[in-house]
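Why should sequence recovery work at all? Because a backbone constrains its sequence more than one might expect. Tight turns favour small or flexible residues, buried strands favour hydrophobic ones, and helices have their own preferences. The token representation captures these environments compactly. In the example below, the structure is given first.
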């Protein structure tokens, strides 16, 4: 498995990594497939426990549905199925955290079983949150977290038996620890995980596996989630500072079967992503930055449309998106604070990209389709194109093509992907033409 190659290479002094695409957006996934196709590298796609679970999650998809959906896209793109690698992120009781512990853990174990049976191979097991009958005044003891995590690992093992296959599973454990008290991360930064905490997490989990008669599963743990000091929010990005993570770097070099997994790497520069991989943060999660790039390109096209089409012909994408988000505020309200004007700006432009939850809304889908239809095959003056899409490679050559809008969308997404490909594999890729 390629994940094993990554771990092995890292401990031979080779800065090999793997991007983890945490998005279900079809345009993002299609662009990733077209980008990866000539590379012959595994495309790791992960879903979270909130996004996809046995009850449907917020996407309405079970793990089997998600695999079928991605596989269908792969078939449409002629993307080799053997290049697909599915992972589950934060698999655990989080969606059911308000329920009593036993009931929540039963559902979490069921989620893990469904994931493995659907073909997921990389499992980030996370039982770090307090559940309904845990003491809300006390931190959850590490021993309890480890015991619950071991229970999830056992569910994964049982699922492979039930599936009747020898599917190789690889586990990731640990979780980023947020600063207590709601501190202003943009001003204070985030606390880099301390080595002693990583050691305790690893040792306690190993002990829990042994107590459960699952000691052999410890060999399938390949990565630990830690906080290397990177984060982003509505309007800030905390860049990787290698000097602050050197204790972690030195420690992981003494663990030949492990690497680190870094979350929230969105919006890091290519140089910082490369530094993360060099420092053994070999699995790089990215999601919102990809849909942010999609949104950027869509809005650029909507501005172009305003200049080329009469009001009666226009998609009115900006107005449609705003109306839908105001009518259905669940996905942004409680996340975006400030005055009404500040909230309006965040709804459209926040780096947190809560707008990504709305692209599948029928009204917005209709507006997007009308926008693309309006611009397909239409002559776009070069000056107008460069005004709103100044960084899209090849726009001069492609601007007369009927699929220029699609080219602009994909190029924007690929620009983000490119930084990860360079950081993890040292390669530049171009979208395969169809």
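From this structural description, the recovered sequence reads:
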């Amino acid at each position: 498995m390629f994940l094993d190659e990554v771990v092995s290479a890292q401990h031979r002094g080779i800065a090999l990594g793997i991007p983890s695409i945490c998005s279900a957006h079809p345009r993002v996934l299609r662009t990733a497939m077209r980008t990866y196709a000539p590379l012959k590298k595994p495309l790791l796609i992960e879903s979270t426990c909130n996004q996809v679970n046995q009850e449907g999650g917020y996407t309405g998809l079970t793990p089997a549905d998600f695999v079928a959906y991605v596989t269908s896209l792969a078939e449409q793109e002629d993307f080799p199925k053997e290049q697909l690698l599915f992972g589950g992120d934060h698999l655990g009781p989080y969606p059911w955290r308000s329920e009593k512990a036993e009931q929540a853990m039963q559902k979490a174990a069921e989620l893990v079983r469904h994931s493995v049976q659907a073909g997921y191979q990389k499992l980030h097991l996370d039982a770090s949150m307090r559940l309904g009958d845990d003491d809300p005044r006390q931190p959850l003891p590490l021993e309890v977290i480890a015991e619950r995590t071991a229970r999830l690992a056992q569910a994964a093992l049982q699922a492979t038996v039930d599936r009747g296959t020898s599917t190789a599973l690889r586990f990731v454990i640990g979780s980023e620890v947020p600063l207590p008290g709601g501190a202003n991360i943009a001003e204070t930064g985030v606390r880099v995980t301390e080595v002693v905490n990583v050691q305790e997490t690893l040792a306690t989990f190993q002990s829990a596996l042994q107590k459960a008669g699952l000691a052999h599963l410890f060999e399938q743990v390949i990565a630990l989630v830690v906080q290397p000091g990177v984060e982003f929010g509505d309007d800030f990005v905390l860049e990787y500072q290698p000097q602050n993570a050197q204790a972690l770097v030195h420690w992981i070099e003494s663990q030949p079967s492990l690497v680190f997994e870094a979350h929230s790497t969105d919006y890091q520069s290519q140089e910082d992503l490369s530094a993360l991989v060099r420092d053994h943060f070999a699995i790089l999660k990215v999601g919102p930055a990809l849909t942010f790039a999609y949104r950027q390109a869509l809005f650029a096209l909507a501005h172009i449309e305003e200049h080329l089409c009469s009001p009666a012909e226009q998609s009115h994408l900006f107005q449609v998106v705003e109306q839908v988000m105001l009518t259905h505020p669940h996905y942004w309200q409680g996340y975006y604070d400030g005055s009404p004007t500040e909230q309006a700006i965040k709804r459209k432009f926040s780096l947190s990209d809560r707008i990504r939850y709305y692209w599948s809304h029928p009204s917005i889908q209709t507006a997007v389709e009308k926008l693309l239809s309006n611009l397909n095959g239409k002559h776009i003056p070069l000056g107008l194109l460069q005004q709103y899409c100044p960084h899209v490679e090849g726009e001069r050559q492609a601007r007369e093509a009927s699929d220029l809008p699609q080219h602009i969308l994909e190029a924007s997404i690929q620009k983000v992907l490119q930084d990860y490909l360079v950081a993890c594999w040292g390669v530049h890729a171009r979208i395969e033409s169809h």
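A few observations help interpret the result. The domain at 292-410 is CATH 1.10.400.20 (GI Alpha 1, domain 2-like).
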